[in-house]
Fold:
Amino acid sequence: MATTPEALPHLDAVQAALETAGLTVYVGGTPADKGWTAPDKFAVVYPDPGMARRENLADERTGFDSVMQVTCVGGDPVRALWVADRVRRALAVPLAVEGRVCWPPEDLGGPPLARDDDVTPPVYYLPVQYRICSTPA
Structure:
């Protein structure tokens, strides 16, 4: 019997790849703790739940397909672009997910660099989306 794919191991693999590239990584947003101070550059991963793809007429849903947004944040435009470069480099190779064969994440791009004046001090951010796909090993 085939195993249904799970989103969490894929998220863990993305987070590990980014941390291995030397990035500070948060999932789903930044900490809401009072007194938390943002580093001068970091990445925030916003995963979707993904979907199990049908692999054959027997309706075995063993393939996995997901889009994860990595928002690259910096205290100035150069720092935000530096984070985006590290993210792109970290996600240019297949992810390591136990029991799965992963394709290299597909860079889907995103909107241009923007400034967030709703936080103090203001930060620059650059959201980039990646398509994550895998099949059973």
User: Anything to note?
Assistant: The chain has a mean pLDDT of 92.
